[in-house]
């Protein structure tokens, strides 16, 4: 492991880097691939596509997921779409424009070379998925349709109603299943990675726990790929599945993999507001709804109070009494500003007292204008020149249902309110994490042979991810990047042979895991794991959430340490090790979150600028926008574990911008 951050970016012009890299990277011939084992942890879009691709190429793949099936990976929850620079709408899109929008959307805190590569391969992803049978939406002529997403002025988002993630995951899963049937992928469902095994400085395996029997298992490979998603559940309440966790990445971090930019966390603006303290997760409403939904709050405080108290309905308010605040503040982009901008604007209105639900933490997402517009277009198409308002509304609702039907249905089931008749209520919530394991251009961490893909790494989104780019990055990494870059590493392993799991490093790692589990089972505490997870989440949301300041962050660090000490002293985990034990699973994950949460706050404290999803109250413009400090903070902050969570060591990867000029973001 090197303490010098070498990002291994290829030489040459930006537009030629990836092409030249592929032309010169070391290869493994097909016969030799059969003697090389690759472990892939996580089977969402990044892990599933990587497993399918590497197995198709001839490697022996061992794939692990803690769910009962790879189909249950959290990628399935992605709703709105996937970006690609195909310019199907003839509206001026290009590889460069997707590259530019992604860099700007990330507030100039991403690595140019990685983002340009992502934009280049984006078009291939769509072709790959269509060939797999993914049922993307199509326009009236049968061609693939596109819609708009935040932070762009072109339509480049391909989608399958409001269930794009599910359809893409089923495509990757079908490709995986073919390889499972051929015996090229050995699938380990209901297994959780609890330790990375490093032999002579190289990642050579993992310790996994069979979640059904409780048995600890040693698995070896010539390389390990971590594709285990993000760490949003450090906040307890988030849009992530309740099982989503950061343990695999955190165990790698404690074995030497640097963790980069943990404070870059995305707050998604269109989430169903929480209804009480008993809630265990939040539900996302797709950003695609901002295409046609207009976001507003009452213009007058007395109207907001009347709505909160149930004396007034939103539909009672005249147009002139509504504040369409995104359209007012950001006329160029309106409701389609990036997520961090939209989230802070909603918080500002609610903090000022204009929130519309009982807690005062909600704004409206209103489809009335879109329903009437689409209805009029449909009436014109049907030559219904004298259509009544009721008929126009009926036609418009049918059009909206065809585009967003499952999202409207989901909202009505959760809230018990018909969003065709009454505006949806939304509020920002923790969603995606741009930080993660630091990786170089090859997607390798600072531990040799340990790669990281998708949301688990830090590489492509800077300080804020544009909507519909998560699916793009996950599939880019798995289908089109790792298959090249991992070969360059594995070319040196063709004579290594099978790696024994009897090596002392495997024995030691397994013993470490067993001691950790026994600590929880033998601890005679009085409080549940969830008690501590909720306590951590409250500190994170209150002090390290949508807006941060020095005093709050210092308070958070002290409080997280206190919660962690109490957790180890007073947590109660029922049952035994050698059985199905969900509370034990949760305990190991929350233990990792309690260390990660502190690093998160330390990172947010050290970065005294505001950028993207990281907003420091001390660093803002006169009108409340994020203000970067390019002189002092144009770098990725990569943290090294020292054995003490209170004393991480900071390493900097300085970011160079040769193609794009650094300037203050504006969506006005």
TrEMBL record:
Its EC number is 1.3.5.1. Residues 533-667 form the Fumarate reductase/succinate dehydrogenase flavoprotein-like C-terminal domain. Gene3D superfamilies: FAD/NAD(P)-binding domain, Fumarate reductase/succinate dehydrogenase flavoprotein-like, C-terminal domain, Succinate dehydrogenase/fumarate reductase flavoprotein, catalytic domain. The active site is at 339 (proton acceptor). InterPro entries: FAD-dep_OxRdtase_2_FAD-bd, FAD/NAD-bd_sf, Fum_R/Succ_DH_flav-like_C_sf, Fum_Rdtase/Succ_DH_flav-like_C, SdhA/FrdA/AprA, Succ_DH/Fum_Rdt_flav_su, Succ_DH/fumarate_Rdtase_cat_sf. One of its GO terms (biological process) is anaerobic respiration. Keywords: Cell membrane, Electron transport, FAD, Flavoprotein, Membrane, Oxidoreductase, Transport. GO terms for cellular component: plasma membrane. It catalyses: a quinone + succinate = fumarate + a quinol. Residues 37-471 form the FAD-dependent oxidoreductase 2 FAD-binding domain. Belongs to the FAD-dependent oxidoreductase 2 family. FRD/SDH subfamily. This is succinate dehydrogenase. The lineage of its organism: Bacteria, Pseudomonadati, Bacteroidota, Flavobacteriia, Flavobacteriales.
């Amino acid at each position: 492991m090197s303490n010098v951050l070498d990002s291994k970016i290829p030489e040459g012009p930006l537009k030629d880097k990836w092409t030249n890299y592929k032309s010169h990277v070391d290869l493994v011939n097909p016969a030799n691939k059969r003697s090389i084992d690759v472990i892939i942890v996580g089977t969402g879009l990044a892990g599933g596509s990587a497993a399918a691709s590497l197995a198709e190429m001839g490697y022996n793949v061992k794939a692990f997921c803690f769910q009962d099936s790879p189909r249950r990976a959290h990628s399935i929850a992605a709703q709105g779409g996937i970006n690609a620079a195909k310019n199907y709408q003839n509206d001026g899109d290009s590889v460069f424009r997707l590259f530019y929008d992604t860099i700007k959307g990330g507030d100039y805190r991403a690595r140019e070379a990685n983002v340009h590569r992502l934009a280049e391969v984006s078009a291939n992803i769509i072709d790959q998925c269509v060939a797999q049978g993914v049922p993307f939406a199509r326009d009236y002529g049968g061609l693939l349709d596109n819609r708009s997403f935040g932070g762009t002025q072109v339509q480049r988002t391909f989608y399958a109603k409001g269930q794009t993630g599910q359809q893409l995951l089923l495509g990757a899963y079908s490709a995986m299943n073919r390889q499972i049937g051929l015996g090229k992928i050995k699938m380990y469902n209901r297994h959780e990675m609890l330790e990375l095994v490093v032999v002579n400085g190289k990642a050579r395996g993992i310790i996994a726990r069979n979640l059904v029997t409780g048995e600890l298992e040693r698995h070896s490979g010539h390389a390990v790929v971590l594709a285990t998603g993000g760490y949003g559940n450090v906040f307890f309440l988030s849009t992530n599945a309740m099982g989503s966790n950061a343990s695999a990445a955190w165990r790698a971090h404690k074995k030497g993999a640097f963790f980069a930019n943990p404070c870059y966390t995305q707050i998604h603006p269109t989430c169903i507001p929480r209804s009480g303290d008993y809630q265990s997760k939040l539900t996302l409403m797709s950003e695609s709804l901002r295409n046609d939904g207009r976001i507003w709050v009452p213009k007058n405080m007395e109207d907001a109070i009347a709505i909160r108290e149930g004396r007034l309905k939103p539909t009672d308010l005249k147009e002139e009494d509504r504040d369409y605040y995104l359209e007012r503040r950001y006329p160029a982009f309106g409701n389609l500003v990036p997520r961090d901008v939209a989230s802070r604007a909603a918080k500002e209105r609610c903090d000022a007292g204009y929130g519309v639900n009982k807690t005062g933490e909600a704004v409206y997402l209103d489809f009335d204008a879109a329903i009437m517009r689409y209805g009029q277009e449909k009436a014109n198409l049907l030559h219904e020149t004298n259509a009544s308002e009721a008929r126009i509304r009926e036609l418009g609702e049918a059009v909206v249902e065809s585009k967003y039907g499952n999202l409207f249905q989901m909202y009505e089931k959760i809230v018990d309110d018909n969003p065709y008749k009454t505006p949806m209520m939304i509020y920002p919530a923790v969603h995606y994490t741009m930080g993660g394991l630091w990786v170089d251009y090859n997607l390798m961490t600072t531990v040799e042979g340990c790669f990281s893909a998708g949301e688990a790494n830090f590489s492509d989104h800077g300080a804020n991810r544009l909507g519909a780019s998560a699916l793009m990055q996950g599939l880019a990494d798995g289908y089109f990047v790792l298959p090249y870059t991992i070969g360059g590493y594995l070319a040196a392993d063709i004579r290594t042979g099978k790696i024994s799991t009897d090596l002392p490093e495997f024995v030691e790692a397994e013993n470490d895991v067993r001691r950790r589990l026994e600590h929880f089972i033998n601890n005679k505490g009085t409080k549940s794991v969830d008690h501590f997870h909720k306590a951590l989440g409250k500190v994170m949301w209150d002090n390290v959430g949508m807006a941060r300041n020095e005093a709050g962050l210092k308070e958070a660090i002290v409080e997280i340490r206190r919660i962690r000490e109490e957790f180890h002293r007073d947590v109660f985990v029922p049952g035994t090790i050698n059985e199905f034990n969900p509370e034990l699973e949760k305990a190991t994950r929350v233990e990792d979150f309690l260390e990660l949460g502190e690093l998160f706050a330390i990172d947010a404290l050290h970065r005294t600028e505001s950028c993207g999803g990281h907003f420091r109250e001390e660093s803002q413009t006169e009108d409340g926008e994020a203000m970067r400090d390019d002189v002092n903070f144009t770098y990725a902050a990569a943290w090294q574990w020292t054995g003490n969570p209170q004393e991480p060591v900071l390493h900097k990867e300085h970011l160079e911008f040769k193609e794009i000029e650094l300037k203050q973001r504006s969506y006005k």
